[in-house]
Amino acid sequence: MIILGIDPGLANTGFGVVRCDGPAPVFVRCGSIKTFSHDTTPNRLMQIHDDVDRIIGEVRPDLFALEDVFSLVRYPRAGILLGSVLGVLYLTARQRGLPVQEIAPKEIKNSLVGFGNAGKKQIKNAVASILRIGDISTFHASDALAVALAVYYRRDYRRVV
């Protein structure tokens, strides 16, 4: 089982891939898709689509795990833009025939740190410890790995050895 975790964002969309075919999840790959603010929104969305589609083709995941995001009432435009990113991500996954699992930020934090209000640094450290890897390049990448790990723990893909 290969899980592709996604931390959605218009400026930066994090991705993280874990393999879950043994007693513990194994790190495969992570990174961030950066778009440029001077570009048009449609071009930025297309870049996210193209890059995620390419990643799917390269890692051939069995499951697409997506952080279920929310928007603050104070920032309606940000919520609308994030909704556009989510639409592109759902479409990209479904075009590839991938099942999509959404997971809430509090559930991610609870499953990795045991505390629903954990900070980004705590999540980053937990992910690095669980996967036995060094420093993760960005918070977007570590958040995406956290999404993949939390979905793994939720669905309990671990096999009895």
Would you summarize the structure shown here?
This protein is α/β, with parallel strands linked by helices and 161 residues long. It has helices spanning 41-59, 76-95, 105-113, 120-131, 139-155, and strands at residues 2-7, 12-19, 26-34, 63-67, 100-103.
Q: What key attributes describe this structure?
A:
single chain; 161 residues; alpha/beta; Nucleotidyltransferase, domain 5; five-stranded mixed β-sheet; 5 helices; 5 strands; globular
Write the layout of secondary structure elements.
Layout: E1 2-7, E2 12-19, E3 26-34, H1 41-59, E4 63-67, H2 76-95, E5 100-103, H3 105-113, H4 120-131, H5 139-155
Parallel strand pairs: 1-4, 4-5
Antiparallel strand pairs: 1-2, 2-3
Helix pairs in contact: 1-2, 3-5, 4-5
What does this 3D model show about the protein?
With 161 residues, the chain is α/β, with parallel strands linked by helices. The chain has one domain (2-155): Ribonuclease H-like superfamily/Ribonuclease H (Nucleotidyltransferase, domain 5, 2-Layer Sandwich). 48% of the residues lie in helices and 20% in strands. It contains five helices and five strands; from the N terminus they run βββαβαβααα. The chain has helices at 41-59, 76-95, 105-113, 120-131, 139-155; strands at 2-7, 12-19, 26-34, 63-67, 100-103. The chain has a five-stranded mixed β-sheet. Helix 1 runs parallel beside helix 2 and helix 3 packs across helix 5. The chain is globular. The two termini are 16 Å apart.
